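Much of what follows relies on a compact textual record of a protein's fold. With that in mind, consider the following protein and its fold in token form.
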Amino acid sequence: MTRIIYETRDEELSKIALDDLPGGPEAFELAAKFCYGIAVDLTATNISSLRCAAEYLEMTEDLEEGNLIFKTEAFLSYVVLSSWRDSILVLKSCERLSPWAENLQIVRRCSESIAWKACANPKGIKWQYTGKHPNVSSPKWNDMKDSSPSRNQQVPPDWWFEDVSILRIDHFVRVITAIKVKGMRHELIGAALMHYAAKWLPGLIKEGSGLLDNSSNSDGSSSSSWKGGLQMIVSGSRDEVPSVQAKDQRMIIESLISIIPQQKDSVSCSFLLRLLRMANLLKVAPALVTELEKRVGMQFEQATIADLLIPSYNKSETSYDVDLVQRLLEHFLVQEQTESSSPSRSSFSDKHMHDANQKGANLNAKMRVARLVDSYLTEVSRDRNLSLTKFQVLAEALPESARTCDDGLYRAIDSYLKAHPTLSEHERKRLCRVMDCQKLSIDACMHAAQNERLPLRVVVQVLFSEQVKISNAIASNSLKDAGDSHYQPLVSNRKTLLEATPQSFQEGWTTAKKDINTLKFELETVKAKYLQLQNDMNSLQRQFDKITKPKQASGWTAGWKKLSKLTKMTNLESHDISPHAPNAEQTRKTPRRWRNSIS
């Protein structure tokens, strides 16, 4: 102070302003009391400000032994750093002492002390549990003064989450970084990050709630910048976000992204997607957004449809950010390819078993992602501004092996056709090309066969695939009974199915009518064969009846037969009696025969 007065060179100087004194007037008052020999109580709430003020006032050992710097350093080293509660409170009080607290290593020492105690066994250390959350069933250590919990009392592994979450984000990052160095499990670190985000970013999963007011935090302090919970904005344009509030939220999100553990499943995929939603809203650094997208891609199969419906904040034509989901899917496929192609150092048998298990796990993950993408397409297809190209690219991003059933994809296509009735015939064919008709269930085939929105070619493919399925099933059952192991289905893949269907559909109904006429001709041929067989059967039946049934002649026919026999006998007798009179009958006068006419 003498040097400041001398440097001003003002003889009438009566007041000195120490505006940059760390700790403010409270710290200066304590330092002045110390100089005059008045007893000063050193506590966890004032030790950091008093230590910084002593450094500012140059109260070193050069002037007098046992000066304020020595006293405060001793209290920090031997009292504060040995207590969990005091370390938290001192680190919390350092928020308004930057950069003095950083330069004096107070932040570093408190962070390492907290990290060491968080990683140690709680039963063997004496400290006080300060910030027990009311919803967490943790031991009531507030009622116990500097005493360890009972040996029979089970200490939850997340006992330190609530205490650490009261820190400002930069100090929280220092603590988490120190905890990582100590070797804590990545699952616990991820859980601590989610707990911190839930405290400082309330309303993270609220939909359409606009600006959520959280005017007080757990200790009842008012919300201003870093003091208390931050407000969360999930809807509206970016211009509506208050600048100071957006800056604070952006700093929290960027810091959380940077300290997420690299191991998979450290945090839930739902949490990552919610962070990604906020990052896009608050214009987080593009490099961090890309890193967060890659993290989502690592566990994309765990996502839900509600988390994927992220609004488009960049003034896009679509309501939802379809391009973002496309990038997430690409990161997922790259990650799957990397895991399947990574070499293994295990033995041959173990490697073979591991590769088989990894292949099955990757296939299951792809199947879950396929169902997720189909559901997402069904939701976003109702948007009239969604282009056909985006829909097709997203639907075709996954390999065909990822979908064992295309019912979900058919549902999305039908929903898109409903929302876009003005599509041309070519565009509808292009849209339906992403679907495999052979993978549709019976219900989907019945619906597709009666769907007037589908192109005629697709309807024919659906009917043909159903016919092939029935034929294959019948042939499979018959050959299975015969024990034929070399049975091959009539149509084994989609390529054969597409080749078997008519290809010249550019003429429209003309070619379709040809196909219908062909089917009618085959039907008429079958009917003709059936009628011919029926006639043959009737003929055989009549012949059989003639053979088995006895004949009954009429009386008139029997009389004429008797008369003809009598005539023959008379002629023979006359021939024998008068062999020498051959012309006797000629000399005999023929009796006149009369014939009655109806006319």
Q: What stands out?
A: The first strand starts at residue 211 and ends at 212. The chain has 25 helices and two strands. Confidence is low (pLDDT under 50) at residues 130-150, 206-241, 497-509, 577-590.
